[in-house]
Structure formats: C-alpha cells, structure tokens
C-alpha cells in the first residue's frame, strides 16, 4: 500500500554517495494492512502483503500482476531494460577484472534519477511562475469552497436529494473518512498520491487535509468526492500508483510506512466500488430525439409535443416539435411532473395543442411510458374534489406566492385543473394542472396556521382576507381536508442549508440558493444575492433541487450569487417583467401573531392545528382534525 516513497522520494540521492544506496529496496512487511470499507484491517490469507515494487522503475503494484517468475518487474519493458542495463554493468565489471556487485546493478537507475531531478527543478520553476501569475491576476468565477469557508455556511447533505446521483447510495461518507488523492505539494514529474482525510462535507464537495498535517490547515483543499481524482484507501496499491508524502511535511517522519499503518488502522474509507456506483447513478434513461408531451410555457392549460435535444445530469432540454430553428425550448428534470408520455393528455382529458407536423420527423421516437415519474394512485369513487371547490395553491407564474384558488375542472386519474382567483382568463388559458397528491396544493387555512402570507384574489377589497367571509360571499365550499396529501417525509433539510436550485421562472438556470423556511415538507428557497421577492416555494422532494457540487459533477453551468451592482441594475426591469408575467396582487401582510380559531367550513367543524413554521417536521402531519360530534 505504501512503498512508492522509497523509490519516488523527492529527496533523491546518488546511489554511489553512500552505502545505504547500495541496499536493495526491502519488500513490504507481511503485516502491512490494507483498509477495506468496513474499517477492518485486511491481510492476505498467506500472510504476505500481496504487493511488490518494480526493481527498474520503483512502481508499486499487486504482486500477482508483476512479470518474471520472481515478480520483480511491473512490465515487460522494465524487465528488458533492467536486463539490458545489468548486462552492460556486468561487461564493464569483467573488463575491469571485477565481479558484478549490487552497486553495479543499481547503476542502471542513475540516468533516470538525473532526469527526474532536472525535470523536478523545471517543474518547480513553472509552479513558482504560476503562483506569481495567479497572485497578480485574481481568479474569476465562483467557488463553493471559498463561499462556504468565508461565511461558515453548511450545505444540505446528498441524502436529501434522492433524484440526484448517489442520492440513494451515499452511505456513511462523513468527516474523518480517508481517501487517496493527488499530491499537489510535490515537484516530481509524475503524478503521485497521498492520503487525505475529510475535514468538512458540503454536498458532493469535501474539504480535505493531507495526512500528517495534524491541525495545520495551510494546504487544505476542496474536492468533489465523486470526481475522478479521489479514490478509496488501497487504490494506489492495487493500481500501482506511488504514495509520496507532501514536501511540506516530508521531514516530520523517517518511517512513513509505520506512520500510515498507525493512522489508518481502523479508519473508514470509500467503498471499493464507489466510482462504479457514481458512474451508474449518472446513467439516464432519456435519450436525444425522444418525443414527450410537456406543458406549453405560453399557455399553461395545455401540453405540446417536444423532442429531447440534450440530457445533462438528468435535466432535459426539450425543443417544441414545431420549432424549426430549435430555439423554442423548455428545461425540466426527467422526473418533473410537467412532462408525460405521448398520449397522456388524451387519456386524462387534458388540453393538447396538436402539431402541424403530420408525421414524426426522421430519427424521432416516442419515449416509453415507463420512463416517466409515476404518481400515487387515488380513489375518486367516493368523496372527491369537485368543480368550484376552494383551496390554496402555489401560483406557477409567481412561485413566491401561495394564492386563493379554485378547482375549475376534474380530470381523470386524479388530475385537477386549477385557476387563481381574481386573475383568470375568460377562456381558462391560464389554468394549470396539479395532481390531487401534489405538494403544491393545500387545504383552506394552511397559510394562516403556518403564518404564511396568503395572496388574496386580485382586487379583493375586504382586507385582511378571511376565508370564512370569502366562502360565504362566493357561495362556495372548501375542498375536504382529507383529500390532500399530508405525508411529510424525513427529508433532512434545515433552515440555512445551502444547495443548488433551479430558478423555475427561468428553468434553464441553476443557482446558488439557501433554505430559509421549512413548513412540513414545503421549503422556501432563496436565491443568494437576490431580493426576497424572488424566493420560491418548493417541495422537499422536488427534482429541481440539487446538492452543492452538482453542477460541477454534471457539467451544468452554475449561476453564482448576484453581485450588488448587478442586483441594482436588473432589479427594476426584472421586477416589472415579473409583475407583468404573474399579474398578481399581493395583499397586506398579516399580523405576526394569529389566534387559532374554529370556523364552520362546508358544514363541518374543524380545529386548526399549529403547523411546524420554520421547523423541521419529520413525521406525518395533519393540518386539521375533524371534531367528533
């Protein structure tokens, strides 16, 4: 596991300068452990370490993979080179009348050592120049590591995002886990590695510290745990990669093998198949040229046919089929409730815009129905939603608002067409479709008991808004509480956690964001650097939320926090655009304290239960309880 330092040390000395240089490299001790994922020390059944060091180049690897009967060389070329140099040394010794010695055998390494020393000096010069240049020119771009360190932020763990890569198989990766990573504090010409421990986790990103630095954080660095340069302890041994201690601490110990054995015994590392799991979790079933039905972004009441143009990290860029120049597009996740298989609209009675294209274009094919997210089955045979019933719903055109809403049409399979009171078009073109189990619709009174500002109907004069009065004035009833989804998963989010979130008003953008409120399973997402009015209410299981480092892992562009100058210049125009788009009226803020009360709704008496405002609710929750007669 650790023998590369003997032959790859930066402090390389001439083989003829001392007697020590004449000694052959000692094999690994039989008791040297290799750390497995469960933290137990593993030794080979035969008592041997199972590792060998190449006598030609010094590479460390699995003994069984080495060449020659004695397993002395890592490759055929090393075996031949060693043999050729040994013959030359033997011939020279014979000409001088001396038998070949161990020193003569080692002389073959001299040219390589000289080249390594010269190249190392050249690399050191380049590194110094790069550091000088970097100091003179500030680095552009956003760094999650610097952002978190400078503000002592915390990030939502990967396990909060079941739809994200490794979300369901992250395991017990935590602070203290040891990994093998490239050693950047080294001037050797070849890529070498060293052990590092996780100091802090932020989503996929980990703050690492090289083993041996103890409390010294001067060379700490951030790395994506799912990246290609991070490996479980033991990977270097099995892959034949050298472990070399950082130059800064090279002087601290004379026996680095013993140091590593002591520090790593019983430690935890990544699972041996971690990189394979990462790769498998980033395989997406949706392929380019697949046809789907997706919401029409210009008329939310209907769907259109679109074609998958690209897939990035499970996010789909869909181009509406009638777009000849492929600029009329729509971004969403493959698990989004906004996309469906071809024929879905007809099957449930949803509006659908027929395409002028009479037949499929060459290469396009319908996405199989099993690829789409399944909704929970509902029983609409008994008491069920009816047209005209009132409820509260997140406005899809203004996601910062929960509004007074009405069920306008009941579709098949549990789907509902909903309109926002006071701002509906006469033809219903701005109705939107939510499933009955959607976490974006709520029973009457949800906002009041959870101290959320409810947006009243546009132009409604009697403020502050009261549901009891409004139901009486409109001669309507509230949708039965028992029909709503009241399940609250153990999501793991906490107020203040950082994450990467889609701006659903501009769904191609993924931004730096913060969880600012938690109401049962509902999260208030704030986009860092922007005003609170741009916040959005999102479900805790939304496929539009991602761990810190998701963009880096998938290659998606991350939108950093808006700088002050950008906010000042864009705030006015963005605000006007948003108001024009949403056409919503935000009522007066409610009092900070509200009295819980009992009211008569739909002829049934309910008592309101205080919600988990700004708290994490990890169990099932019910907003109301029907009073017993």
UniProtKB/TrEMBL annotation:
Residues 610-621 have a biased composition (Polar residues). One of its GO terms (biological process) is chromatin organization. Residues 1-18, 564-574 have a biased composition (Low complexity). Residues 575-591 have a biased composition (Basic residues). Keywords: Chromatin regulator, Metal-binding, Nucleus, Repeat, Transcription, Transcription regulation, Zinc, Zinc-finger. One of its GO terms (molecular function) is chromatin binding. Its main location: nucleus. Pfam families: MBT, zf-FCS_1. SUPFAM superfamilies: Tudor/PWWP/MBT (SSF63748). It is found in: Nucleus. CDD domains: MBT_MBTD1_rpt1, MBT_MBTD1_rpt2, MBT_MBTD1_rpt3, MBT_MBTD1_rpt4. Residues 45-80 form the FCS-type domain. MBT repeats lie at residues 142-246, 254-350, 352-457, 465-561. InterPro entries: Mbt, PcG_chromatin_remod_factors, Znf_FCS, Znf_FCS_sf. Gene3D superfamilies: 2.30.30.140, 3.30.60.160. One of its GO terms (cellular component) is nucleus. Residues 1-31, 559-593, 607-629 are annotated as: Disordered. It comes from the Eukaryota. PANTHER family: MBT DOMAIN-CONTAINING PROTEIN 1, POLYCOMB GROUP PROTEIN. This is Mbt domain containing 1.
